[in-house]
Write a structure and sequence with these properties.
Elements (H helix, E strand, L loop, with lengths): L3 E2 L5 E2 L6 E7 L6 H14 L3 E6 L2 H4 L2 H5 L12 H8 L3 H14 L2 E6 L2 H9 L5 E3 L7 H9 L4 E4 L5 H12 L5 E6 L14 H8 L4 E5 L5 H8 L4 E5 L17 H18 L11 H7 L2 E4 L14 E4 L11 H4 L21
Parallel strand pairs: 3-4, 3-10, 4-5, 6-7, 7-8, 8-9, 9-10
Antiparallel strand pairs: 1-2, 11-12
Helix pairs in contact: 1-5, 1-11, 7-8, 10-11
Bound molecules: N-acetylmannosamine-6-phosphate (LRY) and phosphoenolpyruvate (PEP).
């Protein structure tokens, strides 16, 4: 099983804990102080990593697209370009945020929304680079990213399985230090569209860790993803879901994110082994409530135990485990036995 090495101590895949990404994206409203609060909140919630989105607007969008009016309640400007410029941190602000995350003690990275941003992120030495669903059909970029041989986490929204196979082939031709995330790109995703069992197909098809980037409301789907084997989990984080911005509605507050992390760790601990066995924590209940074999009536030494003579009850002291019922029937008593007395090995022959 391929493991993706993020740092000396942190690996993704195999038996490593699920790598949980707190996606700030653009929920910082273009305000570096809010960005820092979100970094701290991600750390306090126990996320494995905090993530932003780095864009070089000229590289990602055409001039005409940037001039398009963006007239909706989530807009930060009259045109899409003005809106995006408001939300985009400069390279020096990125360096400041990276430094702040190091001080706080949480891994920091960003999605590279284009090749220029990819180079910048390599330059500042983030531990891995995310490639979002906006580039799941951008084979040129994916080839470029693969050639740089840095760990990648790649989302696969907005394309079908054949494109995901192409992504896998492109990157794995260069290296296997990447993860594939199932993702549906809608804000928010209706539950019926999550198609979470795609994860099982990804697990069967691809020899790299797979995970889930969730844009649906709440935490239930993300938790189910972990139960289905997601080794990476990404959810948006926000200080306030009522803030202006496209992604707040499908984000988690710091309190919800903390609960998500706790629930993920509980789920991981609970998946355990597929071998059904009696575990140590059951012993008190076995002692207290498990049934055993007892006499259904008073009988004497030398008498035969007929079916109605043996009962299955919670008893003190215990008799033989009730699973042995059939083995006792038609055996001969070796001792006199009173009604309700336990039946143990050696009491019959
Ligand atoms: C596909 C993709 O990039 N999705 C990102 C990650 O989930 C989103 O955060 C977008 O950047 C966001 O929804 C864009 O919103 P607006 O267009 O209002 O800036
Ligand atoms: C678009 C992004 O992610 P996803 O496709 O996983 O939502 C991103 O990380 O910028």
């Amino acid at each position: 099983m391929v493991e993706v090495k993020i740092t000396e101590n942190i690996k993704i895949g195999g038996n490593n804990p699920c790598f949980i990404i707190a996606e700030v994206g653009q929920n910082h409203q273009g305000d570096i102080e809010i960005a820092k609060k979100l970094i701290k909140a991600a750390k306090d919630a126990g996320a494995s990593c905090v993530k932003f989105q780095k864009t070089c607007l000229k590289e990602k969008f055409t001039k005409k697209y940037l001039e398009r009016p963006y007239d909706n309640p989530n807009s930060w400007g009259e045109t899409y370009g003005e809106h995006k410029r408001h939300l985009e941190f400069s390279e020096s602000q990125y360096r400041e945020l990276f430094k702040y995350a190091q001080e706080v003690g949480i891994l920091f990275t960003a999605s590279a929304m284009d090749m220029v941003s990819f180079d910048f992120l390599i330059n500042i030495k983030v531990p891995f680079i995310k490639i979002g669903s906006g580039d799941s059909n951008n084979l040129l970029f994916l080839k470029y990213a693969a050639s740089k041989k840095v760990p990648l986490i790649i989302s696969t929204g907005m394309v079908d399985k054949s494109a995901v196979k192409t992504i896998y082939d492109i990157i794995s031709a260069q290296h296997k230090q990447f993860c594939l995330l199932h993702c549906i790109s809608a804000y928010p995703v209706p539950f019926e569209d999550c198609n979470l069992t795609v994860l099982l197909d990804y697990k069967n098809t691809f020899d790299v860790p797979v995970g889930y980037s969730g844009q649906e409301v709440g935490t239930a789907v993300a938790l189910a993803a972990v139960a289905l084997g997601a080794k990476v989990l990404e959810k948006h984080i926000t200080l306030d879901k009522t803030m202006k911005g496209t992604d707040h509605v499908c984000s988690l507050t710091p309190v919800e994110f903390k609960q998500l992390v706790k629930d993920v760790r509980d789920i991981e601990a609970s998946l355990g082994t597929p071998i059904k066995k009696v575990v140590t924590s059951e012993i008190p209940c076995i002692d207290k409530l498990q049934k055993s074999l007892v006499m259904g009536c008073t009988k004497n030494k030398g008498e035969i135990l007929y079916p109605g003579d043996v009962k299955i009850k919670v008893a003190e002291p215990k008799g033989l485990n009730a699973l042995h019922f059939e083995e006792v029937i038609y055996k001969t008593l070796v001792y006199d036995k009173k009604e309700d007395e336990p039946l143990n090995e050696g009491d019959f022959c």
